[in-house]
């Protein structure tokens, strides 16, 4: 099964891949179940008649379930709703039958398709290969007042014309291809097709394998960790899964094989997993483990923090450990990484919400914090250990496989698992995590600090100087005047001591650590360097944090900065680098840079009306508004700066407009900043760069006379 459609009359239609194409099976009697509990069963019993009388309740049953990881089984009331739509209305209605918090509800806020797979124990993994069809439509075509669009790219084929001809071509291609999965540049393509059909009286329109479509969720704006994001509306068509490339993390970071790997682990069907966040998928995997242990999922989880001493509070708030980078260009540098450090800390130290600071017969003490961790196996290590082991197996096969198709599949699966492992630590400290616990988050950090310090002491004792260390990586260079023990031997000793592999990641001819903008202290995540003997076809340079790795940097600035790094690598001389920069700036000033290469991508955090300053983003939003192109907080705007001295919308030009010029002064300043990132490890800052360029220009002008 690869797709589930909920029916208006109740029940579901399941779609399966067969040798003869997709086949549908209707299950008419499926109904969702939520659970109701309380401190005392008598409280539930007192409200049972009212619950059963609710028109959206089909029936109730008494069950024995665990209301939490730290609880034994107890009596709860299973409430079966009449259909999937009943849950959203039924849950708050039951909660409001008693005083606030008196009735506690469980298994409420599951996504629709995931709920069906979980409750019926139905695997959403397709047994055959899925067919796909990609459709791309320019954003401006989907934002205008008129329904439909006049150009599209369908499976790499350009289509253009009037709305009716493009509509008919699109529908014909879908019908001929009969895809299981529609991969769309935006899910807004779906309603636009139907609106255009209605407008031009072309009926019936069928984008799915049955007529019609559904809007599952409207668009919304959200804030996460200080960043504003935009979630587009989600749509459903019968019999086909939709992957909206404007609203999918996992497809953008992995591939279809990576998504399907997580489908199998989480039981979230393809369409749901495509739009799900990392935390959403991790939670689904945890929920499957909870179900296996007969544990229910709280609706509105609330976990108080246990009492901490002042010393514990101080230690718990320290976070992860970092060594301030030694600013400068260092030669003969070696990088060592701890393998899946935080997930392995969780597994090897048995850190789990129900084991941390719990009541148990035997336990282990967390360094610095003095929290006790019960020895009884926790659920979180059981969730993560298979992920760690499977990824290691995938990486081993990847090293041994030369088949390109197999390598693409393995890379997708490895990346998908990596993102789950990366997030599992932070999710323990997330206030809305279903099974998180802040003390678990703090304990993981405490162990990580202890591990990094242990590694540093062992490396220094073996004759290696630590030039930088952050989270799970350490960079070392030979200590002057000391004899060096083999890094392989040191890593093996550290690995045995901490029970997590310290792996040799790479050797570098040199690495440059960049200082902060207005300080001589090292920036923790800004560095670049050249690898020693990189594999054929692999980029010899590694960049982190500098402009060419920043999503808002235009293509031209990124290429200039790379050229400067390559020049530094070749000559190790700041003046040679400055000469190369001067050449690029001359090209810029003469107007010989393609404007397409100067496009800047920025995310807007507010609606146009909310801005009080005339920024470049505001100018871009004003131009979009003038062209009836929607722009929502959390979405990107792409533009070229054409006159930065203006505060009106004439300051920029949008990507969708004719690009026939640019503000060379603005891009010159950006290029100089990028040059500073390259040269500041050598002690050359922005003021010196500008002075060098000015001296040359003065000399050149004098020569003309």
UniProtKB/TrEMBL annotation:
<dbReference type="InterPro" id="IPR006134">
    <property type="entry name" value="DNA-dir_DNA_pol_B_multi_dom"/>
</dbReference>
<dbReference type="InterPro" id="IPR023211">
    <property type="entry name" value="DNA_pol_palm_dom_sf"/>
</dbReference>
<dbReference type="InterPro" id="IPR043502">
    <property type="entry name" value="DNA/RNA_pol_sf"/>
</dbReference>
<keyword id="KW-0239">DNA-directed DNA polymerase</keyword>
<keyword id="KW-0548">Nucleotidyltransferase</keyword>
<feature type="domain" description="DNA-directed DNA polymerase family B multifunctional">
    <location>
        <begin position="287"/>
        <end position="651"/>
    </location>
</feature>
<dbReference type="InterPro" id="IPR042087">
    <property type="entry name" value="DNA_pol_B_thumb"/>
</dbReference>
<dbReference type="GO" id="GO:0003677">
    <property type="term" value="F:DNA binding"/>
</dbReference>
<dbReference type="GO" id="GO:0000166">
    <property type="term" value="F:nucleotide binding"/>
</dbReference>
<dbReference type="GO" id="GO:0006261">
    <property type="term" value="P:DNA-templated DNA replication"/>
</dbReference>
<dbReference type="InterPro" id="IPR006172">
    <property type="entry name" value="DNA-dir_DNA_pol_B"/>
</dbReference>
<keyword id="KW-0238">DNA-binding</keyword>
<keyword id="KW-0808">Transferase</keyword>
<dbReference type="GO" id="GO:0003887">
    <property type="term" value="F:DNA-directed DNA polymerase activity"/>
</dbReference>
<dbReference type="InterPro" id="IPR050240">
    <property type="entry name" value="DNA_pol_type-B"/>
</dbReference>
<protein>
    <recommendedName>
        <fullName>DNA-directed DNA polymerase</fullName>
        <ecNumber>2.7.7.7</ecNumber>
    </recommendedName>
</protein>
<comment type="similarity">
    <text>Belongs to the DNA polymerase type-B family.</text>
</comment>
<dbReference type="Pfam" id="PF00136">
    <property type="entry name" value="DNA_pol_B"/>
</dbReference>
């Amino acid at each position: 099964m690869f797709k589930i459609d909920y029916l208006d009359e109740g029940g579901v239609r399941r779609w399966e891949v067969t040798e003869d194409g997709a086949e549908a099976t209707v299950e008419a009697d499926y109904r969702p179940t939520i659970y109701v509990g309380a401190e005392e069963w008598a409280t539930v019993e007192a409200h049972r008649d009212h619950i059963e009388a609710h028109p959206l309740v089909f029936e109730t049953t008494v069950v024995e379930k665990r209301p939490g990881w730290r609880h034994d089984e107890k009596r709860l009331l299973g409430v079966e709703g009449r259909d999937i739509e009943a849950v959203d209305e039924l849950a708050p209605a039951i909660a409001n039958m008693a005083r606030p918090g008196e009735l506690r509800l469980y298994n409420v806020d599951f996504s629709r398709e995931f709920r069906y797979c979980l409750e019926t124990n139905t695997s959403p993994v397709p047994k055959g290969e899925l067919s796909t069809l990609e459709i791309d439509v320019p954003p401006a075509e989907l934002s205008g007042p008129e329904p439909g669009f006049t150009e599209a790219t369908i499976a790499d084929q350009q289509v253009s014309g009037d709305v009716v001809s493009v509509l008919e071509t699109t529908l014909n291609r879908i019908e001929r291809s009969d895809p299981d999965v529609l991969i769309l540049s935006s899910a807004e393509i779906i309603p636009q097709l139907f609106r255009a059909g209605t407008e031009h009286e072309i009926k019936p329109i069928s984008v799915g394998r049955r007529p019609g479509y559904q809007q599952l969720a409207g668009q919304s704006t959200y804030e996460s960790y200080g960043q504003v994001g935009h979630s587009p509306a989600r749509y459903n068509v019968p019999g086909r899964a939709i992957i909206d490339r404007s609203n999918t993390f996992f497809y953008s970071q992995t591939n279809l094989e990576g998504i399907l790997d997580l489908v199998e682990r989480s039981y979230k069907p393809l369409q749901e997993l495509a739009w799900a966040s990392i935390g959403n998928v991790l939670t689904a995997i945890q929920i499957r483990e909870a179900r296996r242990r007969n544990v229910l999922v709280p609706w509105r989880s609330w976990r108080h923090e246990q009492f901490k001493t002042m010393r514990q509070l101080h230690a718990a708030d320290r976070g992860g450990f970092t060594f301030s980078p030694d600013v400068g260009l260092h030669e003969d540098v070696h990088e060592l990484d701890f393998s899946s450090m935080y997930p392995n800390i969780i597994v090897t130290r048995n850190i789990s919400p129900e084991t941390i600071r719990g009541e148990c017969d035997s336990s282990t003490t967390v360094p610095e914090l003095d929290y006790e961790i019960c020895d009884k196996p926790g659920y979180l290590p059981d969730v993560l250990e298979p992920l760690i082991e499977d990824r290691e197996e995938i990486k081993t096969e990847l090293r041994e496989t030369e088949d390109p198709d197999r390598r693409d599949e393995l890379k997708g699966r490895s990346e998908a698992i990596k993102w789950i492992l990366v997030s599992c630590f932070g999710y323990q400290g997330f206030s809305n995590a279903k099974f998180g616990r802040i003390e678990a988050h703090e304990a993981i950090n405490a162990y990580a600090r202890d591990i990094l310090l242990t590694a540093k002491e062992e490396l220094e004792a073996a004759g290696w100087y630590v030039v930088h260390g952050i989270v799970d990586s350490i960079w070392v260079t030979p200590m002057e005047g000391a004899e060096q023990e083999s890094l392989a031997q040191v890593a093996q000793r550290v690995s045995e001591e901490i029970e997590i592999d310290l792996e040799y990641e790479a050797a570098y001819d040199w690495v440059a650590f960049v200082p902060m903008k207005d300080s001589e202290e090292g920036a923790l995540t800004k560095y670049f360097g050249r690898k020693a003997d990189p594999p054929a076809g692999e980029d010899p340079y590694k960049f982190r944090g500098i402009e060419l790795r920043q999503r808002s940097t235009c293509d031209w600035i990124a290429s200039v900065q790379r050229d400067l790094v390559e020049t530094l690598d070749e000559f190790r001389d700041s003046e040679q680098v400055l000469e190369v920069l001067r050449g690029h700036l001359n090209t810029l000033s003469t107007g010989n840079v393609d404007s397409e290469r100067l496009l800047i991508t920025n995310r807007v955090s507010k609606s146009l009306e909310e801005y009080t300053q005339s920024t470049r983003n505001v100018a871009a939003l004003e131009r979009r508004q003038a062209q009836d192109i929607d722009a929502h907080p959390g979405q990107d705007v792409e533009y070229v700066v054409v006159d930065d001295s203006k505060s009106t919308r004439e300051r920029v030009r949008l990507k969708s407009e004719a690009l026939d010029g640019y503000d060379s002064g603005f891009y010159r300043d950006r290029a100089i900043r990028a040059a500073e990132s390259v040269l500041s490890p050598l002690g050359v800052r922005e003021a010196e760069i500008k002075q060098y360029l000015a001296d040359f220009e003065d000399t050149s002008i004098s020569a003309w006379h």
